[in-house]
Amino acid sequence: MNISNHRGTGLVEVLVGLFLLAIGVLGFSILQLRAVDASLEANNQVLALTIAQDLAERMRANPQALIDGHYAVGSVTLSTISKDNSPANPKNTANQDLQNVALHAQRHGMNLSIDKCPVGNTRQCIYVAWEETSLSGERGLENCIKDGVYVKGSHCLFLEAY
């Protein structure tokens, strides 16, 4: 028997190398998808915070409506806000503010609610939710926050206002 030395690589070694390369590429693809999801969530958080800050600034600019409770409306939807064309007064300004901010939130697939803060009853909080999280319905704000802690898996934020 004549034993010859093998030179080069065999088919099995090439297949093992390709298999390892495929696993690596698949791992990087999964990491890329997670990065895109995290980026989208961060974008939604920034947008929700911008909406909440806009409403907080409008509330600060209209202190009489805030004192009279015209901003404390719970879940804000465009259909629940009455449109009044009478001269500007604190209530009409508050209704217009709520309508404008709710429209802005709706355009971005978000919903809005204004209610008492979860800890302490002296201030109001602005809640903004997106994706599957809803601030209306039977559970309402409990879809977002419960006992001052965000609910796991919810997509929302709250901003303490006035």
UniProtKB/TrEMBL annotation:
Residues 31-74 form the Type IV pilin Tt1218-like domain. Keywords: Membrane, Transmembrane, Transmembrane helix. The keyword Acetylation does not apply. The chain crosses the membrane at residues 12-31. Pfam families: Tt1218-like. InterPro entries: Pilus_4_PilV, Tt1218-like_dom. This is Type IV pilus modification protein PilV. It comes from the Bacteria. The lineage of its organism: Bacteria, Pseudomonadati, Pseudomonadota, Gammaproteobacteria, Moraxellales.
